[in-house]
Structures are given as structure tokens and as C-alpha cells.
Design goal:
Layout (H helix, E strand, L loop, with lengths): L4 E6 L4 E7 L6 E8 L5 H12 L1 E8 L9 H16 L4 E5 L3 H11 L4 H24 L2
Helix pairs in contact: 3-4
Amino acid sequence: MAGLRVLCLDYGRVRLGVAVSDESRMLAFTQPFISTQKGNVLQKIRSVIEDNDCGEIVVGLPLSLDGTDSLMTEEVRVFVDKLRELVDIPVTLWDERLSSYAAEDALREAGVNSRRLKEKRDSESARIVLQEYLDERGK
């Protein structure tokens, strides 16, 4: 598994945010989001894994601010169960609290206009979650 990239998914009902690490597992980069409204989502994820030589998946876990589960948390857990049936690589849940807010702030600071904000926010959120994961694992 060493040297293989890490894929991060930010689950949403309309879009999955996507980010992938570099081979050294030090930096996270956004990728185009995956629409959950069109086509086979799990097959699209499999393609991202193969195209980027990913050896691990991190999925953002949307906990409430107090750390408890919410309705969306349970939806993500069901999604991860399906994902684990599809892939033969480790899938890790990672706390994503406030990552969407941080993503919006970063995109606004970068000058992304409000029309494009939604389509970029999910993958930027995945990048933030992945970078936190990589930083924590690298300690």
C-alpha cells in the first residue's frame, strides 16, 4: 500500500466531493466531483481509484458539532458499507465537522464566484478532510 495515493470522498446527496493525495501522501488535491444523480456512482468511484492508483479511501463523516451522529451520519455509514463491498482497499471514516464552511471560506478568498461555489465546494471540502487526515497520519 505504500506509495499508493489516498482517495477522499465528501458524501452528498447531489454530489460527491473528490480529492486525491500525491504519491508521497503529503498533499491533497481536488478532483472533479461525482454526480450522484447520473449513472452508477460506485462504478465512477472505482474508475477514480483505478485512474489514480489509490490504495486507501477516506470518507468524511458528518458528525454534529457535539460529536454525535445525525441523519446524514447514518446515510454516510450506509454508503461506506456499500463502498466496502465494492473495493478491496481500506476505507476509513474521518471526522469532517466544519470542513464545508472552511471550503467555502477558502474558495471565496480565492475569488470563486457564488455561481461556481456549489460545484467546487464539495471537492474542496474533500481536499480539506484529506489534508487533515494526511497531516494527522504523518505525525
